[in-house]
Amino acid sequence: MAGPDWATADRLIYQLQRCFAAVEGRKAELLAEVELLPSHYALMMNVRAHPGIIGSELARLLGVTPQNVTGLVAKLLARQLLERRPHERHPNLLELRLTDQGTTLLKRADTLVAALEEQAVTSLGTVQTRALKSNLEQLRAAVAEHPTQSQVPAAR
């Protein structure tokens, strides 16, 4: 099978996807040591950052559907890494929190992921890392704020 043609390889989004796939692949290998998937890790990190979050809010933060969050949460509840509690002001809503076991496992997982990040930072150096973060934020904002050609309303 032939590799991508130059027009594809030279495209920014293609390169971003390749980088993301490499990072996620390595992260998956590392997290397998603590029996977590990258999606579980991301969910747990967000629950740690927002204790008491509800599923719909978590879905928005993760950029997935509430149904996807429900499935992930069910797996983590079964492993007793998360717990649900009724919301104190809205008893029909269930808050998510890490259990003690979840907190312990997340610390181990985060140590593994932090080592991967340190490897990336060391490879790039401090100045390039800062520049990359800035450029990625600028790109995120540009993509989020500016419509693509297919999103531009037709002239009347």
Could you write a compact summary of the structure shown?
Helix content is 66%, strand content 6%. The protein is mainly alpha-helical. The protein has one domain (15-144): Arc Repressor Mutant, subunit A (Orthogonal Bundle), CATH 1.10.10.
Number of strands: 2
Helicity range? 55-70%
Q: How would you state the average pLDDT, rounded?
A: 90
- Please mark out the parts with pLDDT under 50 across 5 or more consecutive residues, or reply none: none
Share in β-strands: 5-15%
Which radius of gyration do the C-alpha atoms yield? Answer: 19 Å
Cα shape: globular
Task: Assign the structural class, choosing from mainly alpha, mainly beta, alpha/beta, alpha+beta, or little secondary structure.
Answer: mainly alpha
CATH class type: Mainly Alpha
Within CATH, the superfamily carries the name Winged helix-like DNA-binding domain superfamily/Winged helix DNA-binding domain
How many separate structural domains?
1
The total count of helices amounts to 7
**CATH topology heading:** Arc Repressor Mutant, subunit A
Tell me what the CATH architecture is: Orthogonal Bundle
Distance between the termini: 47 Å
